[in-house]
Fold this protein.
Amino acid sequence: MDKTIDEINRRIRDGSARVVTADEMPSIVSELGEEGALKEVDVVTTGTFGAMCSSGAFLNFGHAEPPIKMERIWLNDVDAYGGIAAVDTYIGATNKSVTRAESYGGAHVIEDFIAGKAIELRAQSSGSDCYPRRNITTEIRLEDLNQAIMVNPRNAYQRYDGATNTSDDTLYTYMGTLLPHSGNVTYSGAGTLNPLCNDPGYRLIGSGVPIFLGGAPGMVVGEGTQHSSAGNFGTLMTTADMNEMSTDFLRAAYMYGYGPTLYMGVGIPIPVLDIEVVRRTAIRDEDIPVSIKDYGVPSRSRPVITQVNYAELKTGKIELNGEEVRTSSLSSYRNALKVARTLKQWIEDGQMILNLPTRRLDPSKQVKSMRETRKVALVQEIMQRKVVTVKEDEEIPEAARKLLKGETNHLPVLNEQGRLVGVVTTFDVAKAVAHPERRVRVKDVMTRNVITTRSDEPVDIAAQKLDHHRISALPVVDAQNQCIAILHASDLGKLFKPGGQGL
Amino acid sequence: MKLLVKLSHKSRPIIAEVVKDTGILINVDRARSDAHEGEEALVDVPDEFCRLISERMRSLGAHVSILDEGVRHDRDECVDCGSCISVCPKEVFSFNSEWELQVETKRCILCGRCVIACPHQALSLNDV
């Protein structure tokens, strides 16, 4: 007893459509059975509310007098795109302000516009006969714009991996604060309410389908960037008019150490046409797997530590290597529910009529990695192979002589077997000299927790280590923890020399 | 009740002395030593002995103030994501059955981890 989209729309128009939110569907199906649920339910509304970095908006300011073709554009000192002629721009959510604290970015400009605040527009041009003006500074509000069309290249991920961190240091990532030694787990996504999880075959979600976006009625443009439906990591490109949005469903955010991002509320109504739709929308938190990946490994392919599901994550703790670890959601389930419930209200009130995709999305697409034609610079290309070391049992004056002779501020410290066991710096030696009564040998003053690198590690990773730990040298070790070289912060400069390949 | 105890560098082991004197057990939630500002400890004491302990500590030369406010939660900025929940060492944050963030400031030791972890700048510390 299949239904047509026209039958469902007729019911929406006359106010008799039965609309439920996606979290209610599993129990409806278990109570009424699949046939019963098909008969009973006309529309299932989904919703999600979380960080969607790949978001932004096209803005048109109208022409100035004399006119300008804006080539470089700033909104509250956040760079906006100046390559789409005259008085159009695209403001992206993750761009940072060039003058304010880095916690203000494109996302905040978008939120401020929607909140009705005035935004400073600055623009420059090289000038032309048709557009003589070279610069402009003005204050504008959303109502002053001709168009403010949000177009988000990548929204509503079908799935998202969770994160933990096995390294010794706290990490600040787009997955939030990750405590050392797997001290916590963070995840994102609305589980049972997630739009694409309720239509994994892309039968009903596709181009032209009406959606809820940031409080406004919008639609799906098509597949989102990085769409990888074959691996259940599909995404959507979405659009809606910013004038109809509300800060209840769109919030700028700042992830410490990462930068600005935009929290978006996205909801998609799914018409219950046949048994297949009933089965798919009956998906529960338990049915959606989440891989927890180790962000302690600074590589694209981060190892999977464990596999859990949303039901487990939502309890607030999971087991990791026999220990209980607390979980944090980065997205808001409460607001995801609010999105799905608001969308349900719209449809019950006859405000949104449904339609099938005008063009379907590819359900079997696989994302590719970047093609890189230049090899990445490795530590071995710039490290100092001549490294002066000291033994842990040597006395302080010997260390001082070696520092002078080696013209260095860092001495890797070796044990009897020649393995790296510490580092002493000129500061450590100076301190020892100032307090001769307390410290006599290198091993008494050295730093034991040594941050090291490997010769085959990319320079960027080593540079991040120097930066993160606020240190200026890294001993280079081999697999046996033998110190084979040293990398000084000053060695990074070699990459910029003529003939060097650059970073 | 939480007390913020400020000590000078050369002071006696005041906390230990007060525990020994009064027999009341004190929990040190957080302690900090700073070259400029001296030493500072955030201690948890039973409510009924708060006054007695403060007075004893003051008589031994410590500067003691009652800390009656923990982390500040801005309801308008908060989106109820829960990023703060797993980074808090004292389980100050939790969800109610409606997935609304609950904040038990009484347990807060003002470590500041959640302030950094909050993507919406909804959490802040008072200067103490």
About this structure: The first strand of chain B starts at residue 2 and ends at 7.
